[in-house]
Amino acid sequence: MDYQAEYRAKLRTPEEAVRVVKSGDWIDYGTALSMPVLLDRALAGRRDELTDVKIRGNLLFGPVEVAECDPSKEHFVYNSWHCSAYERTLCDRGLCYFIPTIFRNLVAYYRHFLDVNVAMMCVAPMDRHGYFNVSTSIGVAKGIMDKADIVIVEVNERLPRVRGGMDECVHISEVDMVVEGEHGPLPTLPPIRESDTDRRIAECILPHIVDGATLQIGIGSMPAALGHIMAQSDLKDLGMHTELLSDAYLELARAGKLTNRRKRHFRGKGVFATGFGSQELYDWVDDNPGLIAFPLEYVNSAEVIGQHDNMVSICSCIATDLYGQVDAESSGTRQISGTGGQLDFLTGAAMSRGGKAFLCMPSTYTDRDGIVHSRIVPTFSGDIVTSPRSQSYFLVTEYGAQNLVGRTTWERAERIISLAHPDFRDDLIKAAEKQKIWRSSNRR
What we know:
The chain is of the alpha/beta class. The protein contains 16 helices and 25 strands.
C-alpha cells in the first residue's frame, strides 16, 4: 500500500478542508494539545456563511477563534467538557457553555448518544505504516473520530509521539482530509508557584503514602508542592496511573522515585490519558517506553483503578460544607473547571486494597476587597456539588487530613470543622448546632 500517495490525495489547505462544515453541524476539537489551530482559524473565517455551528472541546489553551469572532453566538457556539483557565474566561464572557460529565463515561457518550459531523484534531506526523499519533490527547480522541462523519487531521510537527496501549493512533485510511501548516511552540503552563499553605497541605498527605503506592495527582500548586516533597522524601518505587500527566511526575522520575516496579498492571510503565505542562514534560513523554497512554474509559475505570494496591488519588477542590459535600468546579454558579475524573478516582481508590483518596484545599480565600472567607461553609447555596457526601474520603487543608468514610453527620461536622481556619470555627459550630449535626460532647 502506498500510504504517501493516499496522504497526498487527501491533503487540503485549512480553507479547503473547512468547506465541509455546514450550518447546524456539531464539530469536535478534542483535548488540550489536539486543538486544530489552523482549522479553527479557517473555520472562523467562514463565520458569515454559517449559523448554529456547535463546537466541543476541553482543556484548550486557546484562543478559540470561532468563539472569539462571534460574541452573538449566532454563527458558532463553543462548549467545553472541562474548563481550562482560558475556557473559564470564555464562560465569564458568555462565550462557552459547560457540559457536565464524568470522564470515564465520555467515550461512551460519543459512542451511544452524541453526533459528530466533523472531527478536527492535531496529530503527530504520519509514520511509514500510515499511522498518525494523537500524542498527549489520547483520552477521548479516537472515540470522537470513530463517531465522526468526517475526520480531518491537522499535522503538528511539534507534537510528541506517545506510546499507547490502544487508540493512540488513527490510520490514513480512517482519515478524510489532511491539513499541513506551520505551528508555533506547543502551549505550556507557566511555572507553578507553591505557597506555604500548599506545602503544609502536602505535608499532611505525605504520611499516608507508602512505598510502592500508585499515584493519581491532579494539576496545580498543591499537587506540584506534593510532587516536590515526595521527590525529596524517602519514598521508593512509586507508580503512576493518572488521568493527567503533569510535571509533578517528571520531578518524581528525575528523583528516581517513579519506577512503577510494584504496580499490578503494566509493571514498569506509567499510565496516563492526557497530559500537558512544560516543554520538558513533552520531551520526556516523546517515544518514552516507560510511559503508556490509554483512553479515559480505561484509565478512569473505577474497576481498573481499584485493581492497583495502595492507590492514592490526590485532587484539589474549592469548598466543602459540614455534611462533606465537595465542590471542585464552581464558585457559586460560576464555572471554574469541571468534574473531570474526581469521582472516578474517588470510587476507584476506595476499591483499592490500601487505597486512599484525598480532596485538598486551603482553608480560606481572600476576595477582591481583601476580605477573608472560609472555604468550609455550613451548607452550600448555589455551588455545584462535584462529589456527594456519600463518596467523600479524606478532606485536607493546611490544618490536617480527616477521613470521613463511615462517619455520622455529627462526626463529620466535628472533623470538618477541625480543618477550618480557627477564626471561623466558632461560627461553624453554631451553624452545626442549628443544623442539628453537633453533639454537646463534641470537642470545641
